[in-house]
Amino acid sequence: MKHQTIISQLTLEEKASLMSGKSVWETKDYPEKGIPSIFLSDGPHGIRKQEGAGDHLGLNASVPATCFPTAATLANSWDEALLEEVGTALGAEASQLGVHVVLGPGLNIKRNPMCGRNFEYYSEDPYQAGKMAAAMIRGIQSNGVAACPKHFAANSQELKRMSSDSIVDERTFREIYTTGFEIAVKEGKAKSIMTAYNKINGTYANEDGHLLRDILREEWGFDGFVVSDWGGSNDHVLGVQNGSHLEMPSTGTVGQKEIINAVNFGQLDEVILDERVDELLTVVLELSKTSKKSVNTERQHQLSQKAARNSIVLLKNEDRILPLASKTKVALIGEFAFEPRYQGAGSSFINPTQLDKTVDVIKDYDLDVVGTAKGYERTDVDNQALLTEAIDVAKTADVVLLYLGLDEISESEGLDRRHISLPKNQLRLLDEISKVTNKVIAVLSAGSVIDLNWDDRVKGLVHGYLSGQAGARAMLDVLTGKYNPSGKLSETYPLAIIDVPSSADYPAEGDYSIYREGLYVGYRYFETAKSLVKYPYGFGLSYTDFSYNDLIVEENGVRFTLTNTGSVAGSEVAQLYVGIDTSKLYRASKELKGFAKVYLEPGESKEVFIAFDDKTFRYYNTLTSSFEVEAGTYRIMIGTNVSKITLQGQLYKEGTTANLPELDLPSYAEVDILTVSDAEFARLLGRPVPKENWQKGQELRLNDALSQMAYAKSWLARAVASILRILLNRAEKKGKPDLNLLFLYNMPFRALAKMTGGTINMAMVEGILTIVNGHFFRGLGQTVKAFRQKRQTDKSLVAKKV
Ligand code: BGC
C-alpha cells in the first residue's frame, strides 16, 4: 500500500467515513492526519460549482463559468485536438474555481435517439465516443484536475434510471457499451470514473465486481477511484467490496455505519477497506497538491465559439444557397434566434459567463437584416399573431434564416423523449413560410436526433446542436462563409423512430431494459440491414469538394490521398470502416475503426495515414472471455460518411481464434432484428431472458421507483404519487423541466437513505415502505424504532469525533 503510514493511524470509523462524501460535492477530510478534502463538480461542458448549499440537480445557482458546446455537439467536430483544447480550458477553469474533479465526460452509447440525455453523450459508436472522451480527459487532466468519465456502463434510458436493469449479452456489452470507456481509461488515463445508476444483468453497476475489478482495474489498468452516481449507491458494503470507493453525496453517518458493521460482523474484510482507502488517497493527495490555474474569461468564450463553429453540420445546401453572399437581404425568424437553446437541462446546466444571441450579434456580419420575428412560442402552443408577423417579415427578404429546434422540456436529464418530431407550432410556421418563399435556410438547435422529413421545404439545413454560450456567432460564421463547415454527424438520423431496433420497447417501463438488438446499434443496424435513413452517420457537407484517391492498405494502417477539388479551403473528416464477409459470427457490415480530420487549401492534396490499432480487427469471444481476431479477409473502407465509401481495399489477417461461439442466431444473421424471440435472445444472452416480476397492485419493493406509488396499497402513498404527477405536468406545461421532481419520480425508495444527507437510514426506508404497502401503524412503529436506534449510534460516533 502506498499510504500505509496514514492508514495505520486511522480508526475503523475514520476509514469507513472516507468512503462517503462530506457534503453534496466534497470528500471527507482529516486534516490532522494529512487527509484533505477534494471538491467534485459537474461537468461535462462547463464547471457547475455551487457555492453555499449544494443540491445535485442545480436548484441553487452555480458560479458563472464558460458554457462550452455539449458533448453531442463537440463530437460532430471529430477533432481530437479540439476536444483536448476544450478539456484543457475546462480543467484550467475548474482549477481556478477550486474544483478538483470534473464530473465528465459523459460517454454512454446513444442506444436510442429518444434518450433524454443524449445531448450529454458523444455518439452511437463506441470508438468515436472513446476517442472524443480520451482527448477531453487528457485536456482536463493536463491542469492537475481529474476527469470523471460517466456513467459506467449500459446506462441508456432516463426512465427509472436508478433501478432499471440493462439486460445485455456479454459480447455486445464489451464491444458496444464498454469499448468507449476502455479507450477513455487507457488513452485518457482517467483518474476517476462514475458508475451508472442502473443494474447490468441483475447487479448494480456500482457493486459489479466483474465490471469494476476484472474489467476496469485488472484488464484496463485503471488506477483511479470509482465514485457512485449521486444517490446511486445501493448496498454500500457490496460497492466497497467490489471496487467502488466513494458514495456521493454525503449520507451522513449512514454509509459509514454500514461499513463499520460489515467489518465488525465479518462481512467485509478490513484489508479490502484499507485497499480502497489507499486507492482513493492516492488521487486525493495528488489532486490537493496541484497549484491553482487561472483563465481569461474572454479567451474561454472565444474558444467556446471556435469549438461550436468546428462542430456545425451542414446537412443540405441546394443550389449552393450557402454561404450567404455579402449584403444578402435576410429575415431572421425564430424564437431561438432571440433566446438561444444552447445547452441541456439537468446536472450539466452551466451558469454562463456571457451569452451571445443571434438577434444582437448579426449586426456584426455583412448581411442586410430586413426584419426579425419570433415566429412561435418556445413551448408548443399556437400563437397566430407571432406566425402572421413572421410571414410578413419573410415576404420582404431574399432569404429566410429560420431558427428551429427542441425546447428545454423536449430533452432533459430525467426525461426520455416520447417522439423525435419538432414541436408542432414550429412545423406549422415552416409550412406557412415555405408557401411565401422557397429560399428558406433552417438553422437547428437540438442536442439529439430530430425527424427531418420536412427538409424538402428548405434549401439549406444547418445543425448547430447545443452550441454553448458563443454558438450564435459560430453559426453566423458558417452561414456567411467566414468558416467552411466541417462537422459530421455522430449519430444516424433515421427516417422514422420506429426504424431503430430498440424503439420497440424504449424506454423500458418495467424492471428490465432488454438490449435485444445486440450489436445492431445505430449505423451498425442500418448499414447491415441496408435500410434507408434520412442522414447517415458521419454525414456532413462542406462549401468545397474533396476527392479520395490512391488507397494503399498496409499491415499497420491505410494510406490514401485526399484532395480539395473546390475553390475554398476546408476540412474533411475521412472515416475508416472495417468489415468481414466470411465471418462465422454475426457482425455489422461496417464498423468505425479510425478517422482523420484534414485541412486543405483549394487544390491542395495531402497523403493521409490512418493507423490500425488493437480495436481494428477484434471481436469479443465469449468462450475465452477475451478479445480475439477471427482469421479472414477484411474489407478496408474509407468513406466520407458510413453510407458513402469512396475507397475500398482488403487485408488478410491471421486469427487467434481456436474455437468460436457458433450460436444459432438466425434473426441476427439475417438482420431481421425487429422481432427477435425470447428464445433466440436467450441463446445470445447465455441464459433465460428475465421475466417482469412486478405487476400493478403488487407490494412495492425497495428498488421500485417512487412513481410506482400510483399503484400502492396505501391511499396516502397514492395521493403523494398524484401530487408528484400533477407538479410534473405543471412544470412540463411551463416548458421547464423540474429536475428535482423528475429525480424523485424515477428514484427508488432505497435512495431515500442516500439522498437525505443521513437523515433517513435503510431501516427507516423499510418502515416507510411498510406504510406505502398499506400497513400504516406497523410501518410507523418500524420507522420510529429505526429512527431512535439511529439517533443512539449517531451520538456514539459524535462522541468518537468521526
Ligand atoms: C447525474 C450525474 C451527475 C450527478 C451530480 C446525477 O444525477 O446522473 O451525471 O454528475 O448527478 O450532479
Model description:
GO terms for molecular function: hydrolase activity. Residues 572-642 form the Fibronectin type III-like domain. Keywords: Carbohydrate metabolism, Glycosidase, Hydrolase. This is Glycoside hydrolase family 3 C-terminal domain-containing protein. The chain is of the alpha/beta class. It has five domains: 1-37 and 250-289, no CATH class; 38-247, Glycoside hydrolase, family 3, N-terminal domain (TIM Barrel); 299-514, 3-Layer(aba) Sandwich (Rossmann fold), CATH 3.40.50.1700; 544-661, Immunoglobulin-like, CATH 2.60.40; 706-799, no CATH class. Helices cover 31% and strands 16% of the residues. The strands form eight sheets. The chain has a six-stranded mixed β-sheet with strand order 9-14-13-12-10-11. Strands 7-6-4-16 form a four-stranded mixed β-sheet, with no helix packed on it. The protein has a four-stranded antiparallel β-sheet with strand order 21-20-25-26, with no helix packed on it. A hairpin with a 2-residue loop joins strand 25 (632-641) and strand 26 (644-653). The mean pLDDT is 95. The protein binds beta-D-glucopyranose (BGC). Beta-D-glucopyranose is lined by residues 42, 56, 103, 150, 229-230, 347. Beta-D-glucopyranose binds at residues 42, 56, 103, 150, 229-230, 347.
